[in-house]
TrEMBL record:
Highest taxon, organism lineage: Archaea
Organism: Methanolacinia petrolearia (strain DSM 11571 / OCM 486 / SEBR 4847)
Gene3D superfamilies for the chain: 3.40.50.360
Name this polypeptide is given: Flavodoxin/nitric oxide synthase
Family annotation (InterPro entries): Flavodoxin/NO_synth, Flavodoxin_dom, Flavoprotein-like_sf, Protoporphyrinogen_IX_DH
Signal peptide extent: none
One of the Pfam families matching this protein, by short name: Flavodoxin_5
Length: 177
């Protein structure tokens, strides 16, 4: 029997929702038969024997969190050995019009100097002013970001299934070259 492929799901988070999205992704990958490790990007992470990595962050003022940017920068040579799939959460993605999606994609353009994602997923996140620290609260008020929980597990799971099919197709193509 073929050995299970190992996939890392690494996330950055401030208030837990991107961790939740990482868990939905990880659980779906396990259901599809992969050997999955879900890990915060601040933890010690071994990338030596993975076959693919899903790496994600929430948007903060249009960018990935500093620790997520730092992770892809400092680990780029290890990450570039395998397909990397980026996932991004943001409150603006709850309204996925062209303008909001283009803005979210800028965050991926910025990290593309280190890794070129095989695919990028953009998912609506969650925000609750009650949980925010003082400086984030001020920023959120200034940016007129409203509270809400827009996480859509089914959408995330469908994206994981589609992404894994694309990964398999790509692998088969490479084998035939
Ligand atoms: C300080 C701050 C800035 C944010 N900036 C953006 C932004 O630029 N674009 C966006 O779509 N969402 C923005 N958000 C919303 C978060 O991306 C969203 O709530 C996300 O789900 C939070 O993830 P977390 O719970 O893992 O920290 C911001 C939230 C905070 C607190």
């Amino acid at each position: 029997m073929e050995k299970k492929k190992k996939i890392l799901v690494g996330y950055a988070t401030r208030y837990g929702s991107t961790k939740g999205v990482a868990e939905i992704i990880g659980n779906q990958l396990s259901e599809l038969g992969y050997d999955v490790k879900i890990s915060g990007l601040m933890e010690k992470i071994d990338l030596s024997d993975i076959d693919a990595a899903f790496i994600g962050s929430p948007l903060h003022l249009g960018k990935w969190l500093p620790e997520a940017r730092e992770f892809v920068q400092s680990r780029k040579s290890e990450l570039n050995r395998v397909p990397v799939i980026a996932f991004t959460t943001g409150i603006t993605i709850a309204e996925p019009n062209e303008h909001n999606l283009l803005k979210a994609k800028f965050a991926i353009d910025e990290i593309s100097q280190y890794i070129i994602p095989f695919e990028s997923g953009f998912f609506a996140g969650r925000i609750s002013r009650d949980l925010l620290n003082e400086s984030d609260l001020q920023l959120v008020k200034m940016a007129k970001i409203q509270d809400g929980n827009y996480i859509d597990p089914e959408k995330i799971k469908d994206w994981v299934i589609k992404t894994c099919n694309n990964l398999k197709e790509e692998r088969d193509k490479q084998k035939h070259l």
